[in-house]
Write a structure and sequence with these properties.
Length: 507
């Protein structure tokens, strides 16, 4: 195909997709189930965060996007910009499948990342084609000079799967610069086990295999989706979403990186998030050096039936991101995360709930704003709490609600949505280290269809979706025995972020 012809096809694909969004965005904007302050697409389906980057004074988020339906298919790259990571403006789609190397009818442009070089923003992503072997994957490059219009590199694809790697298990390149060289980590598989392959390049266009950065010996699954690799302090962190690792859906390893040999030596490992709805996160460095991580607030586990995609699809959309988190390491080299401080700009301080000390002997309601969109924090005073299990019901109505249980006797945290919304099911569980502690801090971000819990200084995080109707808005502490003592409770209603208008030009 000539370059001119392929440019024309791409322009047509973009025009069609952008036009489709423009005519469907108002239905989504009116959806009662719409998130109020979490990032969502303007219409259709979204999954992984892609290419998160600060470029020319603004944050850019790209994302896996099917503009046409509230289901996964036809992957495009959606695009939005922000000054503060809280208020977003949607831009025209950045990448639409148009080339032979991304022509899989359901595949398209899969996940990837972004990096700036000499004032130009490069996207490195996975193209999926179809030659009868499933979603055949290669790595491709596109760039922009104006931050809106993207050009696909004529030399694409820039990387094909090595011989021993199945072509449908070679995806999600994460690019970074280290000591004057560009590196790319790519999810792969060899002999049925997950691998992260490391490549290097002088110019982002020509890539050479360097080493197997890190691999599973079977214990960490058969494929690592969306690997991320970044420095934090004087350590390096590897994050991925493993396939075939049981309940683990997003794990991290902390250790050292030998950039000369291309090897990672992990020292600690853990769960980035224990919840049922946190997957494929990507991190980036903010201008003030914070490491910010954003995950897709969903998971593939509920999709195998390919029939029921959750209640929001009826309103023409499906999928949102979790609250962006600032991540850091604690003294034991474990990852800790907290919602970014910018979220506080949405707090309505005039109507905040503040309780210095609360003793719960059976049950106690604590109203915060409208009970739907808020940010709540408190401490459990472990010294004077005598109950074996402290429970908190969120988005509740009567006995129904999302049940958070802090099982003090068994040192376990559980979030159950079995009686939350009549549609969702499942319990997420994590150990909770209470040894030597006299108090336990809890921070909760609730929105129309999601709950995120950050406990113990952000060492334990659970993200979970809950599609309860808006009239389910009670917040209730309850105990069956003894007493629960809560200290320093502060709850802020969070204001809705104005609906992002579709401000782009269609031609
Ligand atoms: C992770 C993932 C990626 C892939 C993308 C496709 O959620 O499966 O591995 O690139 O989604 O949309």
């Amino acid at each position: 195909m000539s370059t001119l012809m392929s440019n024309q096809i791409e322009q047509q694909m973009l025009l069609r997709a952008n036009g489709f969004i423009a005519s469907h965005a108002s239905t989504v904007a009116e959806s009662k189930m719409r998130q109020r302050y979490h990032f969502m697409g303007p219409a259709g389906w979204i999954n992984d965060p892609n290419g998160l980057v600060f470029f020319r004074g603004q944050y850019h988020f790209f994302y896996q996007f099917n503009p046409y339906e509230p289901f996964w298919s036809h992957m495009h790259w959606g695009h939005a910009i922000s000054d503060d990571l809280v208020h977003w403006k949607h831009l025209p789609i950045a990448l639409a499948p148009s080339e032979e190397y991304e022509c899989h009818p359901r595949g398209g442009c899969f996940s990837g990342s972004a990096i700036e070089k000499d004032g130009r923003l490069y996207l490195i992503y996975t193209g999926t084609s179809n030659h009868g072997n499933g979603f055949e994957q290669t790595q491709c490059v596109a760039w922009t000079d104006d931050g809106i219009n993207f050009v696909k590199y004529e030399g694409n694809p820039v990387l094909s799967a090595p011989q021993e790697v199945p072509t449908d298990f070679f995806r999600d390149p994460k690019v970074f610069e280290h000591e004057g060289k560009y590196f790319l980590v790519c999810g792969a598989q060899k002999n049925g086990r997950a691998q992260a392959l490391l490549y290097t390049s002088p110019d982002l266009l020509h890539w050479e295999f360097m080493n197997v950065l890190f691999e599973s010996r079977g214990e960490w699954g058969f494929m690592w989706e969306c690997p991320d690799f970044f420095p934090l302090g004087d350590k390096w962190v590897f994050v991925c979403s493993p396939m075939g690792a049981g309940e683990r859906t997003c794990i991290y390893f902390v250790g050292d990186f030998d950039g000369r040999r291309g090897r990672f030596y992990p020292q600690t490992s853990g769960e980035v998030d224990w919840g049922l709805d946190f997957y494929a996160p990507q991190s980036f460095r903010a201008p003030d050096s914070r490491r910010i991580m954003v995950g897709w607030a969903n998971g593939w586990d509920w999709m195998p039936t390919w029939k029921d995609w959750g209640p929001t699809w009826r309103d023409g959309w499906c999928g949102a991101f979790g609250v962006p988190r600032e991540v850091a390491l604690d003294e034991k080299l474990h990852l800790v995360s907290q919602p970014i401080r910018e979220l506080a700009s949405l707090r309505d301080a005039d109507t905040k709930t503040e309780i210095d000390s609360l003793i719960v002997e059976s049950s106690c309601d604590v109203p915060v704003g409208d009970g739907i969109s808020y940010d709540l924090s408190f401490e459990i005073d472990l010294d004077s709490t005598t109950t074996r299990c402290a429970a908190l019901l969120l988005r509740a109505k009567g006995d129904l609600g999302l049940l958070v249980e802090c099982d003090i006797e068994n040192a376990e945290l559980r979030l159950s949505r079995d009686t939350a919304d009549g549609w969702s099911a499942g319990v997420s569980r994590s150990p909770l280290c209470l040894m030597g502690k006299s108090q336990l801090d809890v921070r909760i971000c609730v929105d129309v269809c999601s709950v995120e819990l950050f406990v113990d200084g952000g060492r334990v995080v659970h993200s979970i979706n809950d599609f309860a109707p808006l009239e389910n808005n009670e917040i209730r502490f309850q105990v069956d025995d003894g007493q629960l003592v809560i200290k320093n409770l502060v709850g802020y209603p969070l204001k809705a972020v104005t609906d992002p208008a579709l401000t782009f030009e269609l031609h």
